[in-house]
Every structure is written in structure tokens, then in C-alpha cells.
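Suppose you are handed only these lines of text.
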Amino acid sequence: MMENSRKSSTFWLIVFSISALFFTAAASPNCGGSKTNRSQVNITMIASIVQYRHGKLIGGWKPKKIIVKQGQIVHLTLESDAVLHQLSIPAYRIRVTIYPDKPAHVTFIAAKPGTFIFKCGDVDCGPLHHLMQGELIVEPAAPKSNVPKK
Ligand SMILES: [Cu+2]
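From them, the structure of the protein bound to copper (II) ion can be written out as follows.
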């Protein structure tokens, strides 16, 4: 009986510790420094008004797709064409306003793997504002191998 109770509390202690680690990493979008050997990726994103020109849609985010690796520190420099835009990545709780002529910056750890939508947030940047979307792809980290390197 005592043995079971001890096993159970050890189990919950491990579950709690893993959860705490995960939430600490995921909930610090502005954390610039890190004591681990994380690699950093720097990406400049340009936001411009979406519009129809000669039957084609132009503008939006450049790039429209960002691919990073899980665990990387992602530093985004955000620039706007002429009007106010806002980068919103709901899955990472990121929302940054981008003023014209003044680059904005955001740094976060790509802790969660998957494909996430980013869009222009709560600003009205034009009639096609809702089309201003892109994808953040966080490729899962390779599982750590126990086989020693030769
Ligand atoms: Cu916009």
C-alpha cells in the first residue's frame, strides 16, 4: 500500500516537472537570452497592403511561410510598407504592432511543433486585410539518440 502511494506521488512529481518546463519555454515570447545551446534564426518580414492589381492579388506578408526548427530562438524584424499592420501568431500568443518607418522586433522560442497561422491582427489595413495570412511551420526536433557517435 505504501509502495503504491510512493510510486503514485513520484509519477505526479515527474508529470508536474515536465509540464512546468514546457510552460516556461512556451510562455516567454520575449525571452531573448538562453543558457542552453539553442540556435537562433533571424527573419525579416515585410507587411504590405493586400490589393488587386491587373487581376492578381499582391501584397501581404513577405515571406508568407516561415520554417524553423523546434527549440530554435526565432528573432523577427517586422517592417511595414506604408500603413499600420500587426503580426498576430495566436498559437504563440504573439501580437506586435508594426508602424511604418519603424521596424518592430519580437523574439520567441519555437517550443511547439506544428503548422500555425499568422495574420494581421486588430488593425484595419485595407479592404483585403483578412487575406493577410501566412504560416509558421515549426519542424519537430529530432529525437535524441542513445547511440554514441563514432
Ligand atoms: Cu495589415
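What can we learn from it? Confidence is low (pLDDT under 50) at residues 18-34. Strands lie at 40-53, 56-62, 65-69, 73-80, 85-89, 94-98, 104-109, 114-120, 133-139.
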